[in-house]
Amino acid sequence: MTYRTVVMYMEIGCFVSCLCGWILVCSTLPTEYWTFSEVGSIVLTTSNYYSNLWKDCISDTTGVSDCKDYPSMLALPVFLHACRALAVCAVITGFFGSVLTLIGMKCTKIGGSEVANARVTFAGGLTYLASGFCGMITYSWWANKVITEFLDPHFRAQKFELGAAIFVGWGGSILLISGGTVLTYFSGKEGLPSSSPKGPRRPATYATARTRRTYMLPASSSRVTLVPPLFYEGRKSRTTRATTKTGRTFSRDSFV
Asked: How far apart are CA 80 and CA 120, in angstroms?
């Protein structure tokens, strides 16, 4: 099995994982059971209160339920506005991530070259990551608020517990983040250029003005002498001969 085949099957698995996660995140938006609470000590008179991002609902033991939308949008707290915005962003970015990944996958053959497809898949993986993180922040923020109010002894209003939609959203966000991470890694490894040079680096060289020839710099020397080696050796040999001639001593017996 070649490397391309392995990457192709990996992309298919990640796409299915992210698509399932996106569907789970989308299914939590119309679900009312983000929080719920039971009121009443007798079974026959128990009332259930539950709510989500858009409305509050109540039901009793007879099966009759009634829901009411939040009366004023401007009167809502900032927390609720932020959760709404993040949830909608998670749905939108997940949709565009599915489109980009479907175009750039190796098995679809919709795009152009292999590098172009890898870059499109890389963009889809990043979009899936953004969707997963938006969903994770939304559900974690909501759960933190509910748990904090439930454990606060000074909170006198009605206390709620976590609903099933929070756990479904957590599962979908984890699928989005895990699938997007694997997609981004493999597609970025193929589509993005590497910053490190592939070939060996050439050693530093210099050229002299006298000979117009290129010489390699010494590896261990920190100072550079811009003189050709042959010319330098010639000067050194002439200096040595001159020192030898001037340093020779003559005695009286040498002229005999």
From this structure: 34
Report pLDDT for 138. Answer: 93
Determine the Cα angle at 13 with ends 9 and 15, to 5°: 115
Please name which of 251, 14, 1 lies closest in space to residue 128, comparing C-alpha atoms. Answer: 14
Contact of 125 with 181, CB cutoff 8 Å: yes
Q: Is the pLDDT of residue 204 over 70?
A: no
Going by C-beta distance under 8 Å and a sequence separation of 6 or more, which residues neighbour residue 149? Answer: 155, 157, 159, 160
Name 54's Cβ contacts closer than 8 Å, sequence gap at least 6. Answer: 69, 70
pTM (global) more than 0.85:
no
The two beta strands, 55-60 and 35-39, are unpaired
What's the chain's average pLDDT? 77
Q: Are 12 and 160 in contact (CB under 8 A)?
A: no
71-88: average pLDDT = 88
Phi-psi category of 40—alpha, beta or left, where left has phi over 0 and alpha has psi -120 to 50?
left
Question: 180: alpha, beta or left, given left = phi > 0 and alpha = psi -120 to 50?
Answer: alpha
CB 228 within 8 A of CB 205: no
